[in-house]
């Protein structure tokens, strides 16, 4: 009897040992360049984005997510390493993780080291050669990144480097880069379907980045005569001059004046083009999500979608990013976790450096010591989050977002401020009334200045 019992116990043990451990969840990681949080699921009703709306209905939507630096290369390197920008690190579009944070184990590298197949398609890092060790494969469409389809625009771009800021071409979705990126993502999902490893599939869509090129059918979704300039189309005298710029990124394009405000018809053309590009990229993302479902991978895959920073569409008479107004800092962020999310929204203030530790926790991996963000998994689990702040910076400007207050200082190398602005979003959501120099807010400014320095990171003023 004892021998039979021993055999049974051993058999159960051997059976248990023989069972494969449960595979970690896959991650579909979708980055969208220059995407504002202006879709229907954020309360707007003028941009048609049915696929993103559907995804949001299955996800947790962050109403108050903020990039840590409003420029693509720096934002992406910061997000993918979970590291804060400093006065000397993660500065501009050309930032490379390998140069600014060579010792940091990036999110894709951590996943690769722990058995994930890692694939980068399209624009994930700004530089195609950055963090090569993190990927099993990297792919980017061939051709000029301006991606014009009409011959006259192609010729103009080849001759001048930049062409017109918008293009409406009567072509199929796969003519432009984002259609090709969606096709590549679908091909990869089909290959990964039967793999024995979990996957981290990163898709970096290019639109709505300038130039605003999209197939004609997406332009036709909108009536330009009904497009209006933003309510914040002004630059109040109380706002420091340092807060504004000449939006040089846009002025490189043909037919854009080199100085001054844009003509109203051009401004509305740009807004129209932006909307068209959002609808176009929405359709491409929808194709990928449909294939994920068709392949029966939905229940095993975390889907996260983010825009690398906000974008100004005439807000404060500005275009592009490169400022610390909320329009450049606030970003779309949604995450679908099977069995846990179903269209909830959260007001929890979230920084982009929080994405890395959150995904690592969700798939059961230890978080490297270099990661400075804080996991938002408790929010996914329906718990409250005590953290109610974020810090973003661009150039000399550093912003503390604390509750409804947005406090910015422009600082020198020694950390001493030479300009300030403070907005209370409870009474001034458009950021038109700078409170920083008003006597009634002297103590508030003093408290926020101290808190900004306590939270901008221990290495903020440290030179490389």
UniProtKB/TrEMBL annotation:
Domain of life per record: Bacteria
UniProt cross-references to InterPro entries, sorted A to Z: Alkaline_phosphatase_core_sf, IDS, Sulfatase_N
Q: Name one Pfam family in it.
A: Sulfatase
Q: Which cofactor does it need?
A: Ca(2+)
Question: Could you name the Gene Ontology cellular component terms for this entry?
Answer: cytoplasm
Keyword list (alphabetical) reads:
Calcium, Hydrolase, Metal-binding, Signal
Q: Protein transport: present as a keyword of the record?
A: no
Domain named Sulfatase N-terminal is located at 25-364
Which GO MF terms are attached to this record?
A: iduronate-2-sulfatase activity; metal ion binding
| This protein's record includes keyword Ligase | no
> What family is this protein classified in?
Belongs to the sulfatase family.
Identification of the protein by name: Iduronate sulfatase
């Amino acid at each position: 009897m004892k021998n039979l019992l021993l055999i049974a116990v051993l058999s159960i043990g051997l059976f248990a040992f023989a069972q494969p451990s449960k595979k970690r969840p896959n991650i579909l990681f979708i980055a969208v360049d220059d995407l504002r949080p202006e879709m229907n699921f954020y309360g707007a009703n003028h941009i048609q984005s049915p696929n993103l709306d559907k995804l949001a209905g299955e996800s947790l939507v962050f109403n108050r997510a903020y990039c840590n630096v409003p420029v693509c290369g720096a934002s992406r390197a910061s997000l993918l390493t979970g590291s804060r920008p400093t006065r000397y690190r993660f500065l501009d579009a050309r930032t490379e993780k390998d140069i600014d944070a060579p010792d940091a184990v990036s999110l894709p590298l951590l996943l690769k080291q722990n058995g994930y197949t890692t694939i980068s398609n399209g624009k994930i890092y700004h530089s195609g050669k950055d963090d090569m060790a993190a990927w099993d494969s990297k792919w980017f469409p061939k051709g000029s990144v301006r991606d014009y389809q009409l011959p006259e625009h192609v010729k103009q771009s080849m001759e001048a480097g930049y062409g017109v800021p918008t293009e409406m071409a009567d072509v199929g979705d796969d003519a432009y880069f984002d259609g090709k990126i969606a096709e590549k993502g679908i091909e990869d999902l089909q290959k990964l379907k039967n793999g024995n490893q979990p996957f981290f599939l990163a898709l970096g869509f290019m639109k709505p980045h300038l130039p605003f090129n999209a197939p004609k059918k997406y332009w036709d979704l909108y009536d330009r005569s009904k497009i209006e300039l933003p309510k914040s189309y002004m630059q109040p005298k109380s706002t420091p001059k340092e807060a504004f710029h000449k939006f040089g990124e846009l002025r490189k394009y043909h037919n854009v004046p080199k100085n001054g405000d844009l003509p109203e018809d051009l401004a509305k053309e740009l807004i129209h083009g932006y909307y068209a590009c959002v609808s176009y990229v929405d359709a491409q993302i929808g194709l990928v999500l449909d294939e994920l479902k068709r392949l029966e991978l939905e229940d095993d895959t975390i889907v996260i979608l983010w825009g690398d920073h906000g974008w100004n569409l005439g807000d404060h008479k500005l275009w592009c990013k490169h400022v610390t107004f909320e329009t450049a800092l606030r970003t779309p962020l949604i995450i679908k976790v099977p069995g846990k999310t179903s269209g909830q929204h959260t007001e929890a203030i979230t920084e982009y450096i929080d994405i890395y530790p959150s995904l690592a926790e969700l798939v059961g991996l230890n978080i490297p010591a270099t990661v400075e963000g804080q996991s938002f998994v408790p929010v996914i689990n329906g718990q409250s989050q005590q953290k109610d702040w974020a810090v973003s910076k661009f150039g000399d400007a550093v912003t503390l977002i604390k509750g409804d207050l947005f406090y910015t200082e422009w600082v020198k190398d020694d950390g001493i401020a030479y300009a300030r602005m403070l907005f209370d979003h409870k009474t001034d959501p458009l950021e038109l009334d700078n409170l920083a120099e008003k006597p009634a807010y002297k103590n508030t400014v003093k408290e926020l200045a101290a808190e900004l320095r306590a939270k901008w990171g221990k290495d903020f003023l440290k030179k490389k």
